[in-house]
Amino acid sequence: MKDRLEQLKAKQLTQDDDTDEVEIAIDNTAFMDEFFSEIEETRLNIDKISEHVEEAKKLYSVILSAPIPEPKTKDDLEQLTTEIKKRANNVRNKLKSMEKHIEEDEVRSSADLRIRKSQHSVLSRKFVEVMTKYNEAQVDFRERSKGRIQRQLEITGKKTTDEELEEMLESGNPAIFTSGIIDSQISKQALSEIEGRHKDIVRLESSIKELHDMFMDIAMLVENQGEMLDNIELNVMHTVDHVEKARDETKKAVKYKSQARKNLISLQPGVATLVFRWEWSLNGIPESELDPFLCFLVTILGPDSANNLALEEPNLPSATLTSPQNLLLPHQL
């Protein structure tokens, strides 16, 4: 009874261990499902930001092409800018949270951790690419708006250098643009455009400053990941090289096998004759009585097939060719 009790206890412990392993596997699967859900949500947000950036580019062009843009166009641009900042902050927070969890699990090396690192790196790079395009669009809009202001100032007779214009823009005081402009209908229209462009640039610079810190955070993150991504790319390149070498070796093996088969076929008649001569010598038949062709025929085709061939061919012996002893040679007929 004691031995049986110990056996049952051991079995119960084993079952408990198995249950723990199953629970760990289930928990890990649930964790990865949640992770991939966050990845998908973040990816969709980045895609949406990319769409908003393209829409913003179109609105920039509309605003630049009109001397006095419609208020609705500027309102639409303002809404897009707000939406981009909102989604960008959401993506930044998600990526930072993922990075924190990855760093906490860095001590463990597992396939899941590598997957999470890879997915995080891909999304971070994609996010930086999208935000870089947005930043480039903003800078381009600013430069073109500044150019329009400079041209309008020249029309009113006030020439300015790039440095002077930058100082005017940084001051944030539109009165600087109006000083010295004569009071005429044309000048009033030019003045209205200048002031409008100045306001656009001020709002734009405010947006750029708000996104700057976030952009730098993610850019630094991607730069730190550069070494890991380069290692992944290097491993992929090495894998491709190994596959190419394996394919070349396979081609060589097929070629050698084909050559070996040809050599074997060319050797078969001689080998067959030697085997047949050896078999008949064991049965006491003198080598002088052997017919080389029939030796080869029986060895290659087998006794039954050779016998059938002998019946069909009048030039071959008609006796049964079931064994070396029963094979009748031409001089014995």
TrEMBL record:
The gene is STX3. The lineage of its organism: Eukaryota, Metazoa, Chordata, Craniata, Vertebrata. It comes from Microcebus murinus (Gray mouse lemur). Belongs to the syntaxin family. Pfam families: SNARE, Syntaxin. GO terms for cellular component: apical plasma membrane; azurophil granule; cell-cell junction; dendrite; glutamatergic synapse; lamellipodium; melanosome; photoreceptor inner segment. InterPro entries: SNARE (IPR010989), STX3_SNARE (IPR031186), Syntaxin (IPR045242), Syntaxin/epimorphin_CS (IPR006012), Syntaxin_N (IPR006011), T_SNARE_dom (IPR000727). One of its GO terms (biological process) is neurotransmitter transport. PANTHER family: SYNTAXIN (PTHR19957), SYNTAXIN-3 (PTHR19957:SF34). It is a single-pass type IV membrane protein. Residues 39-108 form a coiled coil. Gene3D superfamilies: 1.20.5.110, 1.20.58.70. Residues 191-253 form the T-SNARE coiled-coil homology domain. It is found in: Membrane. GO terms for molecular function: SNAP receptor activity; SNARE binding. This is Syntaxin-3. Keywords: Coiled coil, Membrane, Neurotransmitter transport, Transmembrane, Transmembrane helix, Transport.
